[in-house]
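Subject: sequence -> structure tokens, single chain

Hey, anyone have a minute? Need the predicted structure for the following. Not urgent.
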Amino acid sequence: MNIYTQVCGLVIIGLLLYFYKKQPTMGLSSEHHFITTLYLIFGCVLLDIASCYFIVNSTRYSRLIVIGVAKLYLLSLQAVAFSTLKYTVSDIVNTKGSRHEKALDRIINGFFVGGLLVTAYLPLDYYYDGAALYSYGNAAIATYFFTIVYILGVVVSAVVLRAHIKKRKINALLVWMTIWCITAVIQYIRPKLLIVSFAACIGALIMFFEMENPQGAISRRTGHFSSAVIRDYLDFLYQNRESFSVMMISFKTTGDVATENKMLRKTIEMLSEFLFNIDTAKVFDTAEGYFLLVFENTDFMESTKFKIATYFQSVEDNPDIADAITLLNPYYTIVPNSRIAEDADELMMLLSNYIPSNRDVLTKNEVVVTADTMLEMRMRKQIEKMVVEAMEDDRIEVYFQPIYNISTGTFTGAEALVRIRLLDGTIVFPNDFIPIVEETGRIIPLSDSIYKKVLSFIKSYRVEKLGIEKIELNLSVKQGESPVFVNRFLELLEKNAVTPSLLNFEITETSSLQSKENLLVNMEKLRAHGISFSLDDFGAGSSNLNYMIDMPIEIVKLDKYLTEEYFNNPKAQAIVKTVVEMAHSMEIRIIAEGIERQEQLDAMKELGVDYIQGFLFSHPLPEHEFLKFIQKANLKI
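Reply:
Had a minute. Here:
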């Protein structure tokens, strides 16, 4: 009796079960079905060996026992094939399935039970001539039929549901089914080769290394679950409609970059070791310097947070790590109820918005994310989507607000201001979307779109012939500090044949500036080509004076709020007068924004302001209305 392949199969499955059970798992549906399939394959191989033994020794046992063991083997083959089908669709039917799909699943389960009953009822016989042995009869034919049905089910499901099943899983399953079919044909042709059950072991081995090795879900750095499986686990919880809580532990740095990296590694190692003591949550190492704890039982989150906070407090006296705690302050982002997010993607996006950086000003060491927070984030995402769609559909419009030159009595400039036109014709103003696209980085492609439109406008209408000396463009700090910005903008200038001296970039004081050196270098490069700069919204920020000193600006624009306060507040009057005198002493010109009344204009003239911008003269105008306004206002002089 040649059962070497079956014994090898038993060893393979035994080792897989040993290593699988030794490692922590996340409890996913696919994991449950895979371990079930391993046990069934193990039983199938044992029954294959037992079947061979009883057929070879059939003279020593009753025929009923021999047939019974042989039928059990056939039934186990069907069970393995059916379990493989269930494993294939486990993440779909168990979680994503609709009511009809789950009803279909119950019908398939019934079909499986019916197949077992039919096989158990039908007659079976066996053959052994001292060399070859096999079973035959209607029960064997039924087993071939049902097993082929399940194998075809695996193949069809893998193809039809490929959008919902990982590509690696599909490929591994198809290889497994191919091997199984080939070995079945070989064993049918040469009964001496008992390799069908062994083929199931090889298939399980392939699936283990391709998809189901628990070690693949573990971070080599910390030993916790890795970032690669966070999405799978959260998907599983959401699709099973389970409520859970999440706590993210990140770090707000206060040291320099070199110190930060060293301390961060030390802190992560320390915290990682402690988190192995937490058995109330699944711990994920994101590989980005923070940990994610997921509590399926929401009652344990507060007590766990207290344990972690107590631990950090207890180690502050340790000289080896006290610096790490000081420089890398633990920061907790808490989601008490996962139902505030619709799915795993939305939850991960929400959490990513609450990872502090070394530039964040945090007054507390935690934030609790509520349903209101989620609503605000959805609104921001809708606005971002609106901007992207407007760029794609060319619904970005540029309006121009004239700037009055007090010395000449003409309009010698204009500020280009962006608008978005919705599909229903509604105009969206920049205050509603600029702050959001600044944060998300969409400001760069949006600015590129605006620059192209403004340069095309200047090229088409030659506004300098109408007395326009400067068109002012808002320059995002993110754009201005980009190392590729200057070359890209100069290429646009050359393409549109626009004189650089016609352009002035407005820069606003901001806390988002990351590389002041890059910004200054880019400003000097553009100045060398004739482009000037102005400081926008002076008086709205807290450190504009530094910008006046450090940056090569030629114009300061008084913020509308400061201009209004000039007429109501003696302190504001003193500040504005000082700023105007200081700017003129530095050969910097002044633009007063927000001028709406004639007496305001007269006061600004008396103060010595150089330019006026406001509704007194005009609201921001579309291109053609702006041209008409300038022609009428300037050409009458």
